Amino acid sequence: MKIHGKLVIIGGAVDKGSFTENSFDAKVENNLNFFEKGILKRIITESKHKENSRIEIITTASKIPREVGPEYARAFEYLNAKNVDVLYLEKREQAMEQEVLDRLRAADIVMFTGGDQLRLTSILGGTPFHDILLDKYRNEDFIYAGTSAGAAAASNNMIYQGSSHEALLKGEVKITSGLGLIDDVVIDTHFVQRGRIGRLFQAVVGNPKVLGIGLGEDTGLLITNNTNMEAIGSGLVIIVDGREIKDTNLTQVEIGQPISISHLVTHVMSQFDKFDLHTHKMSIHDSQYV
After folding, report:
1. Is 267 an active-site residue?
2. Is the pLDDT of residue 226 over 50?
């Protein structure tokens, strides 16, 4: 099935800056991390109506939605977006209200902020809002954008817990169902700064059909037709492919014991590199062999 929507998943920002600072406009170059190094601009340019696209900021994952939402709205407006609003969804009942559903139907872009991805899925999962979101993504020229928790929740398999330093101990990484926009991948965020590669290794070794995607800070992926992935932003995307795993002790060790894995393939993507989810082939934008 052809997917008509686009998916933009972002690893989160190291130092997002703040529009609440009095000197923001005077020192905008020092606050560009908030723009995810051009990712927000790319979202606008990829959208149906560009600067006139209807953008809804969804703050459900955040514990401070009234602070986070307006800052993202101002970020988009700073990039000349002319039709931006914040949609506060803090209870499941709100995800069933007609006004909320009408706003989602009218949106060209939804931007899910960071926070707790389990909060996001537990509030929105299985609601009419979730159903409309999936339908728009599959059938319309529509963009689902998510940073941090909003990115982690986009896939069918979602990591929601697991310490970084103990991630390769059996049972440490907890996985549940996400929002289900894309299958056969699992996404982890704040990947480089928080050293989460072990979490992705364990997620993949448990089911090597699932491709692991680790998003660094100020870095993301633009995914079209749930197949073609392009790295965007300033940092790194780590791809963990378990299909060629030759051996592991996963089923032999007890909970809490270290996991061994033989022949786990990894790829490192940077800006403009591409990866095909059907063929599992990567193309490097500035390859030294071309």
Report:
1. no
2. yes
